[in-house]
Design a protein that fits this description.
Elements (H helix, E strand, L loop, with lengths): L1 H11 L5 H26 L6 H26 L14 H26 L13 H34 L1 H15 L8 H21 L3 H15 L15 H24 L6
Length: 270
């Protein structure tokens, strides 16, 4: 943990504090979202279709990533890799993240399928392989940009100034609030997003980087969207009491697993 805290302090030395950093992240995200919505409207595609998702992800999050990259390298005079991409073991951490997402989604699907009516299981047409590749690239950009903003840019500042607990909870709360902009996002969706943010923040602290969180976040967003024609980001809106409990239990297990990973970094090795 000492090396992780030292690396956090080194990466954030001479940079903006938590409140200015929140403002910077909010501006970058707002500009990107504005560009994304404009691009979708001008393209004429259905925003809820696979094509709409691809356009939205690229048009909104590439500018956001570019803006935060310019701020980091030009204004703060530090390398882009300091936003969570430094260090060894990137492939291993990404594989762990992707695997954890697959296991969590399989558990979620099994639990909700067992409790849901069979009549409501219409998944729509499956996307073509080309569409799957485009969605993979689009969600990689979208999820990784969010990880850079909330776990690579904001989390280290909050942790360095207020401690790990405030860093995890504060960055996760901002992550959840940012998703309030999603159309018709119910309160349960925001709460689940907060829980997901806590798990991702704990993994980021445990790893000293965001390779694992980028992979988990990408797979978590991708797989539900290749099972039906349309956005599934607000899937919790369709949960009833029983299936909502399953979703909450799965996310609680993910948070517990991430906390275990974080706790292991606090125990000195012989």
């Amino acid at each position: 943990m000492a090396s992780l805290r030292a690396r956090t302090d080194e990466d954030t030395a001479g940079t903006a504090g938590p409140l200015p950093a929140v403002l910077v992240a909010a501006v970058c995200l707002a500009v990107g979202q504005g560009i994304g919505r404009l691009a979708v409207n001008r393209s004429g595609v259905d925003p809820a279709s696979h094509a709409g998702l691809v356009v939205q992800c690229f048009a909104a999050f590439v500018p956001t990533l570019a803006l935060i990259g310019v701020w980091t390298t030009v204004r703060e005079r530090r390398p882009f890799s300091s936003l969570g991409f430094a260090g060894a073991g990137a492939a291993r951490k990404a594989a762990l993240g992707a695997g954890a997402a697959v296991v969590a989604l399989l558990a979620l699907n099994a639990g909700t399928s067992a409790l849901s009516d069979a009549e409501g299981s219409d998944q729509g047409a499956s996307p073509t392989p080309g569409t799957v590749v485009l969605l993979l690239l689009a969600f990689t950009v979208q999820a990784s940009t969010e990880e850079v903003l909330f776990r690579g840019f904001l989390l280290p500042r909050m942790t360095a100034s207020r401690g790990a607990a405030v860093g995890v909870l504060g960055s996760s709360l901002l992550f959840a609030c940012a998703h309030l902009a999603n159309p018709d996002a119910p309160a349960t969706y925001v709460v689940m997003t907060f829980m997901l943010g806590c798990a991702l923040a704990l993994w980021a602290l445990a790893d000293g980087g965001i390779w694992r969180t980028c992979a988990f976040h990408t797979v978590w967003n991708l797989l539900p969207n290749i099972t039906a024609d349309g956005s599934d980001e607000n899937a919790s809106a369709g949960f009833d009491g029983a299936t909502l409990g399953v979703a909450a239990a799965v996310l609680a297990a993910v948070v517990a697993y991430a906390f275990r990973s974080y706790r292991r970094t606090l125990v000195p090795r012989a």
